[in-house]
């Protein structure tokens, strides 16, 4: 441990269970000396085990629906009261697609479900920052981080409308990040993480295939949830004070690969049987 967050205060959205990246971030933030409030939607809290995390990290839990401005305003007010002042870091780790859960193909969406997923997964990020901005709740050189995925830039067919949500999320980080940086000296970034076996990610069709493919494509292999948490801690720390408006790839090099020898070898083995004879 390096005491990178000693004396810093924050809010962590989205810790559901020990598989969650947000859960790992909370554990690491605690180890690095931070104090923080944990929050999730009431329905998610009933499904998860966030109370165990709160006990482990000495944190309080404030239920909040990230699509409700009233809930978010209450969350920020209570957090500053509990933590004794302004906030230094915020993690947005929220994502949900009803179309994915219901098995609706991308070309045949239920648009009411699409709107719900967009509201939860992307627009909530704008809401969170809007409340923080208007309440002047962040300390100078504070840091806001949201978790994304490369489907915002490239086609992963079964990621469905979550790809659109992540693209919008990254755009919000840049656009709101400009104003947050100019007016409040607050950093805003997104982390494009390797496919990670979390409770949310496992709901995507073919997700195991995503993970196996990315592992073979990436020169360093997939980044784990804990490794993502480590990276997030650096963005919360004072070591990255001038990093903002960035979508930062944390994926073992996957994002810059065209093809790997591992993928090519596997492809060639399937295309040309080993017992095939040349004419």
Which structural traits does this protein have?
7-stranded parallel beta sheet; 279 residues; Rossmann fold; 7 strands; alpha/beta
Specify the helix fraction band. Answer: 40-55%
The strands making up the biggest β-sheet line up spatially as 3-2-1-4-5-6-7
Calculate the terminal CA-CA distance, rounded to whole Å.
63 Å
Sheet having the most strands: 7 strands, parallel
CATH fold name: Rossmann fold
CATH superfamily: NAD(P)-binding Rossmann-like Domain
Structural class, please? alpha/beta
What is the architecture at the second tier of CATH? 3-Layer(aba) Sandwich
Task: Tell me the radius of gyration.
Answer: 20 Å
**Overall shape:** globular
Order of H and E elements: EHEHHEHEHHEHEHHEH
Task: Please indicate the count of domains.
Answer: 1
Low-confidence stretches: none
Report the strand count. 7
Average of pLDDT? 93
What is the count of helical runs?
10
CATH class: Alpha Beta
Strand fraction = 5-15%
């Amino acid at each position: 441990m390096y005491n990178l967050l000693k004396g810093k205060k924050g809010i962590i959205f989205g810790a559901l269970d020990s598989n969650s990246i947000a859960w790992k971030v909370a554990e690491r933030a605690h180890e690095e000396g931070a104090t923080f409030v944990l929050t999730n939607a009431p329905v998610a809290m009933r499904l998860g085990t966030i109370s165990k995390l709160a006990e482990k990290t000495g944190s309080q839990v404030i239920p909040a629906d990230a699509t409700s401005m009233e809930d978010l305003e209450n969350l920020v007010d209570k957090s500053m009261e509990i933590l004794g002042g302004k906030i230094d870091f915020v993690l947005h780790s929220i994502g949900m697609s009803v179309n994915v859960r219901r098995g609706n193909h991308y070309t045949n969406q239920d648009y009411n479900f699409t709107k719900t997923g967009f509201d939860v997964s992307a627009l909530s990020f704008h809401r969170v920052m809007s409340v923080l901005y208007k309440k002047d709740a962040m300390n100078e050189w504070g840091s806001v981080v949201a978790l994304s995925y490369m489907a915002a830039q490239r086609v992963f067919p079964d990621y469905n409308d979550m790809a659109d949500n992540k693209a919008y999320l990254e755009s919000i980080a840049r656009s709101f990040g400009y104003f947050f940086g100019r007016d409040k000296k607050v950093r805003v970034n997104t982390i494009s993480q390797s496919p990670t076996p979390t409770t949310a990610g496992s709901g995507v069709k073919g997700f195991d295939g995503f993970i196996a493919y990315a592992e073979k494509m990436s020169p360093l292999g997939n980044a784990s949830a804990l490794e993502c948490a480590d990276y997030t801690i650096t963005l919360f720390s004072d070591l990255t004070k001038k990093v903002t408006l960035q979508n930062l790839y944390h994926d073992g090099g996957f994002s810059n690969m065209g093809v790997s020898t591992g993928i090519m070898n596997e492809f060639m083995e399937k295309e040309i049987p080993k017992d095939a004879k040349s004419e």
